[in-house]
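User: Assemble these into one structure.

Assistant: Restating your components, then the assembled model:
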Amino acid sequence: MSEKAKITLTINGRAYDIAVEPRRTLVDAIREDCGQTGTHIGCEHGVCGACTVIVDGEPVRSCLMFAAQADGKAIRTVEGLADGEKLHPMQQAFMDHHGLQCGFCTPGFLMLAVGVLEREPNLSDDELLDVLSSNLCRCTGYQNIVKAVRAAAKEMRTA
Amino acid sequence: MSARETKGSGMTWVGRAIRRLEDPALITGQGRFTADLPAVHWVRFVRSPNAAGKIVSIGVPDGAYVVTAADLKDVKTIVPMLHKFAYKPVAQPVLAEGVVRFVGEAVAAVVARSEEEAEDIADLVEIAVDETPPVIDARDALADGAPQVHAVAPGNVILEGKVKTPDFDTVWNAAAKIVTVEARSRRQNATPMEARGGHAAWDASTGRVTLTCTTQMPHLMRTAIADVLSMPESDLRVVAPDVGGGFGQKMSLCSEYVVLVWLARKLKSSVAWTEDRRENLIASFHARDQYQTLAGAFDAKGKLLALKADILSNVGAYSCFPTTSGVEPLMAMAEMPGPYDVRHYECRARGVLTNTCTMAAYRGVSRPIITFTIERMMDKAAKAFGLDPIDIRRRNLIDKFPYTSAMGLVYDEATYKQTLEMAVAAVDVPAFRARQKAERAKGRHLGIGFATFSERTGYGSPAFAARGMEITPGWETVILSVDPSGFVEVRIGSSPHGQGLRTTLAQIIADQLGVTPDIIKVVHGDTDRAPYGWGTFASRSLVICGGATLIAAQKVRAKLIKIASTMLEAAEGDIVLENGAAKVVGTDRSVTIAKLARESYTQTHRFKGAIEPGISETGTYDPPGTFSNACHVAIVEVDVDTGRVTVEKFVVAEDAGKIINPMIADGQVHGGIAQGIGNALLEEIFYDESGVPLSATLADYLPPTAHEIPPIELHHIETPSTESITKAKGLGEGGCIGAPAAIINAINDALSPFGVEINEMPATPQRIRAALRAKDKAA
């Protein structure tokens, strides 16, 4: 084990001063050092996207980033998506269109879709399909995830 | 439509696409999964690097706490049992003892203060194995002189089922044509997005252990682990919190969980293990590794007279608990005839042990394979008779009910022919054939494929007993209460993990009690809170647990009416329950259900002993089973230069009886079809000849992404089941049962100008190209 480094992770606007080994991944730090367990781990090799969070406006696989690399950056996770009691349009759309079943991959899909659409709100349906094929879901067959994200994209554009 | 909307007169909750009650927590990151729990100790399993051999030594770094079989002398082996089919009771030690039998078998458990530390130590544990030759393939395992995986099963055959109907040979010999298909289904992993994991915590005040784990069967885990550890079942609580998908993989007993409970008792502390994806792919349960040979005897008009099947199922290194490794071969034997009327049947089904990861249930259990096999046979028969694939199915599908199969299964009313016609109409076959012809002229190869099938669901204990299972699941019990606050709680033995059962059960209850679903709490996945039950698998929960819920709700309804009759001084027959109140018909007299409930606990003297205190009723249901059915149609394009297959369109016409929540029902079908597409085209666990698994990441084992799944068009028929008191049939598996056959048939249709046949799943680009190349060479 190597020496721990002191870093600050800012998650959903709150600063967490933590000490982590250099090898600690961002997702482990978010879940274990900061206690935010809404972000899930599906494969730890960057394929499934369950651990997707938004770092400085970009959706990233938090299993492929070291915690130390996120020092001082603005991190957003599923816990910060709603505005108090008011759900984010993406969350609402996933509920309305049955875009989730077991819910394990859902935080990753929500953060992926929100992160991309905030940056590029006018993506076409085909481009959105490309984006959504970044992550894996084993329950829904993607039909309703695609439907939900398209509906939320429309809502986000008019909001 | 939300679960909070007011109930209007004459409206029912059943049949409506209300939003799920499960969702608010899951979309806000408030779901609670096993890996979210903190623990004092973390476990990393050290797994066998070799497929077969004697363990010579286990080298442990100084100062490390590492548990091996030598430490577990007080722990029994896991011995799943069948009392039929010449089953051999193969024993599995919870950690490998003396020998290893597959790469990935748990040999040692490293215990440390963090996951990282446990992993670091695990890297230093050295397992020395005196290797012996392994056997990987089921056919090789049957060969003379093949390595023996277990001494108790000479020849590696763990079970053999045989059936032959009277007069079979006479009918067979008189047939006009025999059509044979040799089908191969490669090995899969169910691949839930949440891999396995467990957390065992000791409670010093009671001496009990709480095991939180990713299981589909919490009560049975409690029974099984208590047996293996010789501990009172009352000292163990098993909790299935939010579970991130299961698909059958999380049904079986994991030896790892036994080790965790043992450690929690030994250390008097909490211990946790979170499986990583590599472990899941190599060491969690596998499925679907089968060879099937099927021959059909037809009369001159293309009517199927007799079926002869040989089923060879590679069951891996051990037998899974509780189903045993009979789960695949015996399911295949029982249900091979599928939706077709055939009176004569001969079958031999064998389970074969190999030095590979243990096989267990995976969504559909054998039926994706038998449907693929028999649907390939039907297409080949159509060709042999010069018939259209649709016509040969029309001539053979069951259309009189109840129908008793050659195996003695009773099929309740279904719509095999109607769903075929519905799907055929939806795809417009003549238009497709014209387009196919035009595109072929331009060098594009499109194909259409059909699959019709039955999906046996919601079967109770007699169906499992027919397999001779020592553990015979089947029934479900629920306890439905209205508490003094007027809220409704139903505690169930089923253990949903994505199926939306909290919502659908609430819909069933809401209609009986005249309340809204949002005041109904469904409690599951906790052996301290829920009644004993069998969990969620085999498309059973809505039928069986839903039926038990309806029974309990009818009892609660009767009691509420009885109490209201006393309080309102009206005849029971004049009282209705609606909008959260009991009302006297034709008057303005009413009392809220909340008040009825409160008084049933706190004002019992008013009922003068005529009504028992409180409102809590039990319902138990153990139905015979009911058959859902569907027709799937796939349109694919095959790139003959690369072997790549694109699914252009997928159409489903299905009948799952009465639909409780159409949104949830459609979601189940979508998800099943996606897994079926993965099965048909992408997903394959493969081993090299020394037994090393080569598909150990999600970059090698390929569940489909959104790109591989076309828009799915669904059409429904609702034939209320007479074998299910809610009239609902199960539908959790149909999607994955029909899709592979439809797709492989479509590929064969696309390739028909080339004279090649694909009878192997997955039909990867490599396999398609190999078939085309072989044909080129031959030509």
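Chain A touches chain B through 56 residues (CB under 8 Å).
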